[in-house]
Amino acid sequence: MTKVLIVVGERPQQKSVLVEALRRFREQGAAVGIVGDFDPDGLGLEPGLAEVRALPVEPADPRLRRRLARVPEPSRALWLRVWAETWVRRRLRAADVLVALDPTAVHAVWELAQRQPRADACNGIGAAGRLVQARQEGTHRVARTSVRLSARTGIVVRGARRTAVTGARQSLEVALAPAVLRSRAGGRLWRAAVAAPGLPERVRAALAYRVHLRSVQAGRPGLAAATTAAATGRIAGGKGRADLLTREATAELDLGHVPVCLTTAVAAELALADQFLARQPARAAKSLYKALRLLFHRVPHFDQLSSPLAERPAEFLAPLLASATARAATTPRGRRTPPATPPADRPLRLLIMTNGSAHFLREIEQRYAETPGVELRYLHLADDPVAAPLTHQPAGIVEHLVAGQSEYGNRVEEWLRPHLDWADTLFVDWCVAAAAMTTLVDPGDTRIVMRLHSFEAFSYWPRLIDFSRVDDLVFVSDHLRDFTREVVPALTGDRAPTLHVVSNGMGLRRFERAKDPAARFTLGLIGTSAVAKDPRWAIEVLRLLRADDERYRLVLVGGGLDVEASASVRRYQAALSADLAELEPTGAITRIGHVDDVPEVLSGIGVILSSSVRESFHCALVEGAASGAVPVVRDWPFFAGRPTGAHTLFPADWVVGTPAQAAERIRAVTASEAVWRSEGAAAAEHVTKTWDWSVVQHDFDELFLPGRRH
Q1: Are the CB atoms for 433 and 461 separated by under 8 Å?
Q2: Quick check: 211 and 229 in contact, CB under 8 A?
Q3: Which residues pair with 427 in a beta bridge?
Q4: Most buried in the list 113, 362, 678, 685, measured by CB within 10 Å?
């Protein structure tokens, strides 16, 4: 007779399924015992189906009560209560099949299985049915000594039809349950398991991958890293190590996590690239591109409130800097001839080119279209039938850089050369694909000017640009220049371009409109489409203000987050949605989505916020200040500890470190209507005198038309 012990942690949701399974067990001659947290009468079991033991709500043993008070996890608490029952220990001695009916019961079953190694253990009533049937049919086999790994890891293998190391799926799921992985014993067992000698490499890699991923899901990144290190130490081939680490890192990115093995995976992939560099450069380029995509994936840098590149740049970039293949790709090739002197006998031919947003080019394009002595051409690569497909082939750029030549590079040369032959100066906005494509080609005597925004600094694109072929590189702020120079080595040394700081071109006069007195208590945040904007910080400021004065409200302007981007964005959106669900119905927060007439919206906003974790400049804040709204700027965390940042870009009294400091500043500047209007007028005067296009345009004239009078 097969003896089954079922542990229940939660009230069964589908009692009819349980009852039907118990009837089949009875027909198969199995004796069933059920223990756990439930009302026995609520199960509605007919006599003879099972012996039922409900756990007492309040244990009689005071020592057990004290232990339970120190255990927060329901799964571990259930195990302590189950093991305290003499009835359970007696039935365990004779048990053939142990069953966790729900996730809360998994840990208890795992612990029971360690104390009764003869029994099979599984998760779910369906898996239990298969094990009982196998025993009845005589097809059940206990794993042999050749699979000793199963005995060390607990609920693995037994009950499987094949004596593979990974064992039965149901059993493996139980052994990899969060409660198991959170326990010290479970962690030790799995580290030993993945490093067990004699395992086939394919099996070791598959097992290590699952343990790593489940450890991350269980909140044990340290265990994930340790088991991976134990497994890769036993994998001889570089490709096997790289494949395992890359697969694990990719899976974590899919979960929206910064992988615990990110730089290790990148280092393994780059080591593989270096093996192929001399004899198969195209193969080396593929591994380099794979490593770059991992290292600069959006999840670590754009979909979190921090970035490992900003926090520890040297450590983060170390694998890249140590790679021979990466060094080959970033070798300066220079130009054969220096840029020509601007012509004196004809107009300067200026070509403006981009494949990014054209938002920051409006004033620049208009000015030089109207400037005497300048012949302007504008090219957005998305509109070019030849160039557009080339911008979507970064792997081709990497291959050309590693090999020194490629068919892709030939196509870029054929497309770009006529533009270079025409232009005296080529200005490339955004250091992305268009910029990388440009420097694949020797520019001849054409002067090359580029502008880098903050996005690129956290991407792989600057690592694909040969800056020895760039004459001038423009940044919109000192802190962006300083940070980019730190993380892009090509921007230092004799062959680096000349670096400039020139603010964004903004026509700020159009924001000068009268404000209604009610705007005094209205906070505004313009732009909420990225996690980096961190609107929840602004909401926290609002909470602090409304705790004392419910007249304060917040207006969120702009489109929402793209929840399809990654799981980390979805997590942030879920938290933001909870905030909005609480505060929107009270009128404390208003969302108005995308608007075309921003000056009109700003006329109703009295305090303009910058809640971002990083910004290169934050035009929306400056535009808000130009409207007379009082600026409150978070000391952007990505740059807060550096010599330059928000605290050096803006007046010191604008910048705050915490929501509490922001609330304190807002209370002070809105203490009266007179104070608020005075502070707003001072802010408007400052930004207009400093950053209006009427001022900044002269910096662009010096950049594009040096030495000319304007």
Answers
A1: yes
A2: no
A3: 352, 449
A4: 113
pLDDT value at residue 29: 87
Which helix H or strand E contains 374, and what residues bound it? strand 374-380
pLDDT tens string 52-101: 998 988 888 888 888 888 876 787 889 899 999 999 999 999 999 999 88
Which residue has 């003896």 as its token pair? 3
- Report the chain's terminal Cα–Cα distance, integer Å: 100
List of the chain residues with pLDDT < 70: 13-14, 72, 139-186, 708-710
> CA 235 to CA 655: how far, in whole Å?
52
Non-local (6+) Cβ contacts of 117 within 8 A are 151
| SS3 (DSSP) at 579 | helix
3-state secondary structure of 604: coil
Query: Where are the alpha helices (H) located in 349-430, listed in sequence order?
Result: 362-370, 387-390, 394-403, 407-422
638 burial level (CB within 10 Å; 0-12, 13-18, 19+): buried
For the stretch 165-224, pLDDT in tens is 333 344 455 556 666 666 666 677 777 778 877 778 888 888 889 888 888 888 889 889
Query: Model-level pTM?
Result: 0.77
Same fold, 1-140 and 348-501: yes
Correct CATH for 348-501 of 3.40.30.10, 3.40.50.300, 3.40.50.360, 3.40.50.2000: 3.40.50.2000
| Distance, CA of 274 to CA of 271 (rounded, Å) | 5
Could you give the CA distance from residue 660 to residue 429 in angstroms, rounded to a whole number?
Answer: 38
d(C-alpha 40, C-alpha 256), whole Å: 42
Kindly give, in sequence order, each residue whose CB lies less than 8 Å from that of residue 708, ignoring residues fewer than 6 positions away: 373, 701
Q: What are the helix (H) ranges across 603-658? A: 619-626, 646-649
> Taking the domains of the chain in order of start, what are their residue ranges?
1-140, 348-501, 512-691
Q: Which residue has the tokens 């209507």?
A: 673
Distance CA 317, CA 581 (A): 41
Report d(CA 287, CA 283) in Å as an integer.
Answer: 7
Mark out the alpha helices in 255-297 (DSSP H runs). 262-276, 281-295
CB of 481 closer than 8 Å to CB of 499: yes
Q: Are 367 and 295 in contact (CB under 8 A)?
A: no
Structure-derived torsion over alpha carbons of residues 458, 642, 620, 477, reported in degrees to the nearest 10: -80
Sequence-ordered list of residues with C-beta below 8 angstroms from that of 413, at least 6 positions apart, any chain: 440, 441
C-alpha–C-alpha distance, residues 250 and 462, integer Å: 23
Sequence-ordered list of residues with C-beta below 8 angstroms from that of 321, at least 6 positions apart, any chain = 327, 489
Task: Tell me the HSE value of 241 on the side-chain side, using a 13 A CA sphere.
Answer: 21
320-348 per-residue burial string, b: 16 or more CB within 10 A, e: under 16: beebebbebbbeeeebeeebeebeeeeeb
Contact (Cβ atoms closer than 8 angstroms) between residue 438 and residue 379: no
Please determine, looking at this structure, whether the domain spanning 512-691 carries the CATH number 3.40.50.2000.
yes
User: Residues near 202 by Cβ (< 8 Å), separated by ≥ 6?
Assistant: none
CATH code given to domain 1-140: 3.40.50
Token pair of 180, please?
């198991």
Rounded to whole angstroms, the Cα distance separating 646 from 617 reads 8
Mode of pairing for the β-strands spanning 655-656 and 3-8:
unpaired
Q: Which amino acid is at 63?
A: R
Asked if 261 contacts 248 with a C-beta cutoff of 8 angstroms, the reply is: yes
